[in-house]
Every structure is written in structure tokens, then in C-alpha cells.
């Protein structure tokens, strides 16, 4: 059963400028899973898509989460597999509270824009 959806778009050039202008931004927003396998240079499109995934997930969770850290939502990209969401901390607690036990994630970037779409699902049958 679908519990919620979230979508977000990020301007890739704007993300690149923000990361260049504020070097501490990258480590503050992106965790080890987010950056695993990315080249040190030229990864603005991938990081923009991952940031969009974080925002889309927050939207699906309803917005403000007490005790939230950007590292609570990370995008993991296993080799030869689609990207997946990994939730910890406040995001994981909010997800459990809403009965979400499965996430679907789609990322894309083209024409200077990155987009993420998430679907939050409960594998339990709906109670009527």
C-alpha cells in the first residue's frame, strides 16, 4: 500500500556553485553512502540528484522531523543496481511511525536539472 510520495528538483549549476562557494556544505549534507563511488570532481549532477532525493523523502515523511540530520537520508548506489534510500536517525523513526517499510527511488538529470521521485510503501495490507 502506498503511504506517500515525494518529488523534488534541483538546479545542477546552482548546486555546483553552492558546493564551490561553501566547501563545508558537502560534508554537512552528504554522507559516506551519498558520495561512495563518485569522482572528486564533476559530480554536481549526481549530488544534485541525491539532494533532490533527500528533499523528496522529507516531503514524503511530512516535512519537519524532530532531531533530523541530512545524513539521516542517504542514497546508496550499489554496483550494477538501482539507487536505494538508506534512512537512519530521525528519518528512520518518522518512517517507522508512519508504517513505511519499503521505499522506491528514481533519480534523473538532464538539461541542467536533477529530479528525484520517491514512493513510500507499507507491505502490510490496508486496514479498512
UniProtKB/TrEMBL annotation:
Cofactor(s) this protein cannot do without: Mg(2+)
Binding site for Mg(2+): 8, 55
Gene3D superfamilies xrefs: 4'-phosphopantetheinyl transferase domain
A Pfam family hit: ACPS
Leader peptide range in chain numbering: none
Presence of keyword Lyase: no
Entry keywords, A to Z: Cytoplasm, Fatty acid biosynthesis, Fatty acid metabolism, Lipid biosynthesis, Lipid metabolism, Magnesium, Metal-binding, Transferase
Free-text function comment from the UniProt entry: Transfers the 4'-phosphopantetheine moiety from coenzyme A to a Ser of acyl-carrier-protein.
HAMAP family in the record: AcpS
Protein name: Holo-[acyl-carrier-protein] synthase
Organism encoding this protein: Pontimonas salivibrio
Amino acid at each position: 500500500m502506498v503511504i506517500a510520495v515525494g518529488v523534488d528538483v534541483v538546479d545542477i549549476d546552482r548546486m555546483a556553485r553552492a558546493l564551490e562557494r561553501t566547501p563545508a556544505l558537502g560534508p554537512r549534507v552528504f554522507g559516506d553512502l551519498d558520495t561512495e563511488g563518485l569522482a572528486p570532481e564533476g559530480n554536481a549532477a549526481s549530488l544534485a540528484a541525491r539532494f533532490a532525493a533527500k528533499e523528496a523523502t522529507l516531503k514524503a515523511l511530512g516535512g519537519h522531523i524532530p532531531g533530523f540530520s541530512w545524513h539521516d537520508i542517504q542514497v546508496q548506489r550499489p554496483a550494477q543496481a538501482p539507487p536505494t534510500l538508506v534512512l537512519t536517525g530521525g528519518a528512520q523513526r518518522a518512517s517507522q511511525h508512519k508504517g513505511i517499510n519499503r521505499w522506491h527511488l528514481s533519480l534523473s538529470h538532464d538539461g541542467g536539472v536533477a529530479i528525484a521521485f520517491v514512493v513510500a510503501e507499507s507491505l502490510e495490507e490496508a486496514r479498512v
